Amino acid sequence: MRRSLSDTLAFCRILLIVNAMGCIQSIRCKPRSFRESIIVLEVNSSIDSNPTTIDESSNVVLRYRTPHFRASARVLVPPVAGKETWTVGWIQACNHMEFYNNYGNRGMSSWELPDLREHHIQAISDSDGVNYPWYGNTTETCTVVGPTKKDTKFTVSMNDNFYPSVTWGVPVSDSNLPHLTSIRRDQSFTTWLVALNQATNETMVLQTVRWRMQLHIDIDPERPLGQRARLAEPTAQEQPQILPRNEIIPANAMVKPNANDAQVLMWRPKVGEPVVVIPPKY
């Protein structure tokens, strides 16, 4: 027997799936209707279970790669009667950033977002820098152009991780002599599944996800290359939270600049004044 949409809407189950291969958090929905328009069938979010990996193959920089944050959603858009264009996809913003590279008694370098650090803004866009406000424009979004006669079903997905390079030597020095002693990083993000009307800019938040990435690497610069760095914590990241109630997107999360273009690399010596090593691009 064919079940009507109203009957289907009477059922909802929320599943929290934790397994050894990734601790995936999953919400399976009614499917539920948002303003009697767009239906979110399923949302999944997880951070890979593998620990951060460290690469000491270069005598100039240390590299590390964190596990991936992943989010995906299955969405149904009912027939669009008029000449409307809707884009559904992922928007992400950074809410908090601490990124410190310590060089013993010489000082530390830090990547900073000045406006975020000084609490002038609540969050900053983490767009790819091209397709504002979207995180990306491949698997991250889908556009439906009306009029359409049938339901349109699709999946939008995204992933994010860190893969930076940190100099062994003090960044304001021409020397490559290793002085790096530790790396600490703690960043928080909010990620929204959003439907956006291209003509009116009407924005509907369909789902909100919060996640965090932490990192602490201990380094002994006296040891040979390839044996210096050790992942202190964590070996596994906290899993993302799919929020039961959606959050409003701050204005800064929708417009330029994005976090990559706004960040500044500072050198903060133990003695003396801070120095801007790399200014913001924007």
TrEMBL record:
Domain of life: Eukaryota
InterPro entries listed in its UniProt record: FAM78 (IPR029638)
Keyword Signal: yes
Signal peptide: 1-20
Keywords linked to the UniProt accession: Signal
Keyword Signal: yes
The protein's name in its UniProt record: Protein FAM78A
Protein species of origin: Conger conger
